[in-house]
Amino acid sequence: MSRKPALAQYWSESKEDGRAYKHPVSGVRVPSVTTICGMSDKSGLAQYSADRTAKWCAENWSLLASKSDEDAIRGARYRWKDHADERANVGTEVHEWVETWSEDGFAYPELGYDAQQCVDRFLDFTVEHKFQPYYSEVTVWSEKHGYAGTFDWLGLLDNKPTLGDTKTSRKLHDEHRMQLAALKNADYMLLLQPDGTYIQEDMPDIESLMFLHLRPDDYDDLYKRSDQSFYALEELPMAEADLYFKRFLGYREVFESVQELKLLRKSVSVQKETEQNVEW
User: Fold this and answer.
1) Total domains in the fold of the chain
2) Residues spanned by the domain of 216
3) Which one of 25, 82, 133, 235 is separated from 170 by 20 to 30 angstroms, measured CA to CA?
């Protein structure tokens, strides 16, 4: 289960192209922040996938041995996604709960064991820090650079205007920091109105960029590590955010060139097909 912001859609028919946002007024489509950050190096994910797949194969050796090589490969190749999907479900439940809390709502989602522990740590955080969110799950838009994204929350944290990102992953990565830097540098917010329309509002002054890291008790059966449930605040210094945004804009250009290359190849293919039909 994944969280899809209200204005988000797939960039193309291929889910591999990532997500786009469609402007509710102009109809303009731009790539999402996460899609652009997805152009970055994924060497760590490749090793994680290989490790998880190898572990599954070791645990299911008898099953694989009973199949043909082709069926064994087909059955094992995507088993790493089982664990990834499980962790994504935890993140979705936690984000939906925190969003409901931020908006003083009542329809809280049901929580699994790990998500409940993360929520308990969130409540610890609200006791130990002054936290007053003004906006949650709001789409922001950059006309200048052509991208959009949705932030988790924006408000006062210990009396500082703060843009925040809630994370339940084991670690924080540079990709997360690029995302937060890009959201901070958007031109305006798109605020949903009671009648279903959106209005634009300039991004407010932001003094702090913060990750709220929430984790359940965790035993990593692959690497044999054990950690207790916790919450932690990790600030992204503004000077670093400027450099991460610079890197983000580089990946924005990479994304553009990849899409242009696909269109060029498609155009050439259509032209060749047309010429062949004319010859016949």
Assistant:
1) 1
2) 30-41+112-274
3) 133
